[in-house]
C-alpha cells in the first residue's frame, strides 16, 4: 500500500522536468529555422513564415529515457545581418547550437563556417569548449533543386566534429531526431561530468524539485524518517 502511494505521488507530482537545456538555432535568413522549430513544437509546418525579428522563443518537453524529462528552451534567431548584434548575445546562455543551411542554397552552406566561428567565439558556461554543435541541411523535401550534396554536409560536419542530419519541415523528416540527438549528447556529457550547471549560466538548469517536498509531507515522514524516503 505504501509503495502504491509512493508511485502515485511520483507519477502525478514528479518534477515537471529534471533538467532544462537552452539551445540556439542559427544560419542564413530563409533557410527554415523558424519552420523547423514550429514543426518540432507544434507538430506541423507553419502556413506562413515571416522573417524573424531579432530573437523568438520556443519550448518543448522531451523524455530522454523513461522517467528522465528535459525541457528544451529554444532560441530562434534572425538570419538577417541587421539583427546580428541582438542575436549574438544569446550564445552565452546556450549549451547547444544547431547550425542550419538550406540544401537548395549553396550560399547558405558556404556561410556555415562563418556561423560556427561566431558561435564558438560567443558561447559561455563552465566549459565553453563542451558546447554541443549539430549541423542541419534543411528543406530535404526539395531534393530536385538540391545545390548541396548530402556527402558535402556530412563531410563539413565531420571536419568540425559535429553531428549531421538532413531535415524537412514539410515532411517532418528528422525533425524530432535533430533535437533528440542534441539533447542526448548534452545528457551524455552531463553524466560524464564534461558539462555541468553553473550559477549565473542558463545553458543547463536543474528542474523543479517540487515532488520531494510533496512526497515527504504527504507520506507523513518527518525528522529521521525522511532520510529513508526514496522518491
Ligand atoms: N520546401 C520547404 N520549404 C521550407 C521548409 N522550411 C521552411 N520552408 C520555407 O522557407 C521559407 C523561410 O522559412 P523560415 O522558417 O521563415 O526561415 P528562417 O530561417 O526562420 O528565416 P529568418 O527568420 O529570416 O532567419 C518559408 O517560405 C518557409 O515556408 C522545408 O522544410 N521545405
Ligand atoms: Mg525565422
Automatic annotation (TrEMBL):
Keyword annotations from UniProtKB, A to Z: Autophagy, Cell membrane, Cytoplasmic vesicle, GTP-binding, Lipoprotein, Membrane, Methylation, Nucleotide-binding, Prenylation
Transcription regulation as UniProt keyword: no
Membrane topology of the entry: Lipid-anchor
GO molecular function per UniProt: GTP binding; GTPase activity
Alphabetized Gene3D superfamilies for the sequence: P-loop containing nucleotide triphosphate hydrolases
Phylogenetic placement of the source organism: Eukaryota, Metazoa, Ecdysozoa, Nematoda, Chromadorea
SUPFAM superfamilies with a match to the protein in the record: P-loop containing nucleoside triphosphate hydrolases
Highest taxon, organism lineage: Eukaryota
Cell membrane among keywords: yes
InterPro entries associated with the record: P-loop_NTPase, Rab_GTPases_membrane_traffic, Small_GTP-bd, Small_GTPase
Protein name: Rab-39
Single biological process term from Gene Ontology: vesicle-mediated transport
Subcellular location: Cell membrane; Cytoplasmic vesicle membrane
Similarity field: Belongs to the small GTPase superfamily. Rab family.
GO cellular component: cytoplasmic vesicle membrane; plasma membrane
Amino acid at each position: 500500500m505504501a509503495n502504491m502511494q509512493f508511485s502515485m505521488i511520483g507519477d502525478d507530482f514528479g518534477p515537471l522536468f529534471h533538467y532544462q537545456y537552452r539551445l540556439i538555432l542559427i544560419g542564413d535568413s530563409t533557410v527554415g529555422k523558424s519552420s523547423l522549430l514550429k514543426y518540432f513544437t507544434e507538430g506541423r509546418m507553419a502556413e506562413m513564415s515571416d522573417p524573424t525579428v531579432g530573437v523568438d522563443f520556443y519550448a518543448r518537453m522531451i523524455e530522454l529515457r523513461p522517467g528522465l524529462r528535459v525541457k528544451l528552451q529554444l532560441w530562434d534567431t534572425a538570419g538577417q545581418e541587421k539583427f546580428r548584434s541582438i542575436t549574438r548575445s544569446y550564445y552565452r546562455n546556450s549549451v547547444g547550437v544547431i547550425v542550419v543551411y538550406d540544401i537548395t542554397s549553396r550560399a547558405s552552406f558556404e556561410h556555415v563556417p562563418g556561423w560556427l566561428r561566431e558561435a564558438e567565439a560567443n558561447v559561455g558556461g563552465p566549459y565553453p569548449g563542451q558546447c554541443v554543435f549539430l549541423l542541419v541541411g534543411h528543406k530535404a523535401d526539395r531534393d530536385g533543386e538540391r545545390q548541396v550534396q548530402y556527402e558535402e554536409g556530412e563531410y563539413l560536419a565531420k571536419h568540425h566534429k559535429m553531428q549531421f542530419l538532413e531535415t524537412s519541415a514539410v515532411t517532418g523528416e528528422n525533425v524530432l531526431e535533430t533535437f533528440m540527438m542534441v539533447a542526448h549528447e548534452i545528457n551524455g556529457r552531463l553524466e560524464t561530468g564534461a558539462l555541468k550547471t553553473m550559477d549565473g549560466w542558463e545553458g543547463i538548469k536543474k528542474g523543479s524539485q517540487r515532488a520531494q517536498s510533496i512526497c515527504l509531507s504527504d507520506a507523513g515522514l518527518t525528522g529521521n524518517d525522511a532520510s529513508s524516503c526514496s522518491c
